[in-house]
Amino acid sequence: MTEFFQNLGMTYEWAWFVATIAGILLIAFPLMLAVAYVILIDRKVWAAINLRRGPNVVGPFGLLQSFADGLKVFLQETIIPSAANKGIFIIAPIVTFTVALAAWAVVPFADGVVLADINVGLLYILAISSLSVYGVVMAGWASNSKYPFFSAMRAAAQMISYEVSIGFILVCVVLWAGSFNLTAIVEAQRGHGLGIVNGFYFNLLLFPMWVVFFISSLAETQRVPFDLTEAESELVAGYQTEYSSMAFALFWLGEYANILLMCALNTLLFFGGWLPPVDWAPLYWVPGIIWFLLKTLFFFFMFSWVMATVPRYRYDQLMRLGWKVFLPMSLIFVFLISGYLMATGHFGTPA
User: Fold this and answer.
1) DSSP secondary-structure letter at 41?
2) pTM assigned to the model
3) Is the pLDDT at 143 greater than 80, yes or no?
């Protein structure tokens, strides 16, 4: 894209700057539109599982419901509690929303279709996703209310519990692919599963790690059955209790952007990214970005399915699962995978 703007007569510096801004907008605007529609899909899936209609009044088939909700929230009054720390109270939703968008900078939608194809893309996402808890903790503390504060403490403990397991799972993927670059990780998945299936999900060593990663993704994004930070039966709405208007909407948008990010990571790390599911020549005629979006939507459907059917865990069950099940399991698989790779000597090559 930089070359395109240089051909229009710009200097390299200005061409790079304009190309970078254009790339950011090309990701941010479609992502915001996608968030609006996945919220609708979420509600439609819950309705179907509960034998209800779901949103069906605003626009054809209810397609404009999310925009109507956004307008309603935008027109509401922003109320800041008198005892709150006003500066941090306002900054918290901005932090959550900004961090949710920043992680998408290194996500490859297809071969070469990525804003920043850096060598440590996976480390960047791990670091950025770890920052998302700061918005929740800031909101809980700044509200100067007991329920948001309890929620903030839960969020911090929950993030630590599952971030550790996710880190070891990513070590397994990096060992197998031989790279931290997300494009290289996708390319390493060509021909897995008897040379027919593109993805690690037929790999008997990495399949259990995908299961742990998917469940940890639910905990990382505070989705049911791990939505202990919002638990309305105990904490009213958790860290969002004192928020209204656009501040609440930014938490909402950031939450769904994070959910889509985790769905994209499931696709990229274990299910072949933009590669077709089966290594069959005619399937490569479909653009890679279409395969990527279909797989990401499939994982989003699984997130919605779990939310509509699985009851919430108790907090002690949540901690036990993270520390006593997932952490030892992920450590064992780091040992197994590294041992297998040392024995066979094919680091960075597909099985």
Assistant:
1) H
2) 0.89
3) yes
